[in-house]
Each structure stands twice: as structure tokens, then as C-alpha cells.
Amino acid sequence: MTASPDTLFAYLDSLAIAHTTHRHAPVFTVEEGRDLKASMPGGHTKNLFLKDKDGAYVLISAEAHTQIRLNQLHRHIGTKRLSFGSPEDLLALLGVTPGSVTAFALMNDTAGKVRFIVDAALLACDPVNSHPLTNTATTAISRDDFRRFVEATGHAFETFDFSA
Question: How far, CA to CA in Å, does 47 sit from each of 30, 53, 60, 85?
Fold first, then answer.
């Protein structure tokens, strides 16, 4: 069974991770959320759910304005060519739908099938803001707690500098 936002908040509480959530109209893209994000301090994420030609899955959480060159990324992270994962795979593995992709969904990947990579630029921000399993809200946690959350889900906290 996949987690809900309330399940996520209870999990954050169990980890003693302070969190603040702002509810808003659905936001599907970085551009759609620009005005909303201007009123919320910290770094805002864009999240990409990817699959390589061998069937390996990768979730990337990047700072909202980071340019990611998908056609070259595989060479830098040691995968085959990458494309976007299907909505069906996204739902099956991370329990979310397109537009709601978030690092918080790693709590649904109990089998550890998804590799997680975080943008170095995002780690320069504090707090980190991301959807809480739905695109109708944004949840802020500290940068250090972001790492603690990811590691608590059993995933490695792999950092990559997309500007390089």
C-alpha cells in the first residue's frame, strides 16, 4: 500500500523531522509554481523519474532551475541511455503520479529498486521544498533532515553536480 501525505507526515514525525506544509492549487511544472515558490524560502525541487535501456530506475531531485542534459547524463552516472519512466512504473515503484514526483516517494520504494541522485545545487539551499506525494501542497524540511529522510528509507544519498 502506498503512503499518503498524512502517512508521510507521521513518518517525518517519527524521525523527529520538523516539517511545514503549504497547501495550494495543483502545480505540475516548475514554471506553474513560480509565483508560489517566490513566497516560500529555501530551494525548490524538480524531480525526474527515469529509466535506462537495461531497466534500471533513477529518481533525480534537482534545484528547480538546474539544467539537466538527459542525452549526456548516462555517461556521468554510469547507466545506459535514459528516458522518462512510464506513469505505470512511477505509480508501481514510487506510488505517485506524474506531476507529483518527489524524493518523499522513496518511502514507497521498500524494495530499493530506484536509485536516488540529488543535485549538488539543491544542497546549497536550506530548507528544501518538495511535494508531499501530491502536487497540491509543498513541504519544507531542513537540508540535513532531507538527507536523514532519504537514508531512513534505505536509499543512498548520492550527490551529483549537474552544472559540471
Answer: 10, 20, 5, 12
Q: 10-14, 21-25, 38-42: which has the minimum mean pLDDT? A: 38-42
Q: What is the pLDDT of residue 164?
A: 78
Q: Supply the DSSP string of 29-62, one letter for each residue.
A: STTTTHHHHHTS-SEEEEEEEEEETTS-EEEEEE
Q: Which residues contact 57 (CB under 8 A, 6 or more apart)?
A: 49, 50, 51, 85, 89, 93, 113, 114, 115
17-26 residue pLDDT tens = 999 999 988 8
Does the domain at 5-160 match CATH 3.40.50.2300? Answer given as no
pLDDT higher than 70, residue 70: yes
Name the DSSP class of 114. E
Cβ atoms < 10 Å from Cβ of 11: 16
User: Omega into 98 within 30° of 0, i.e. cis?
Assistant: no
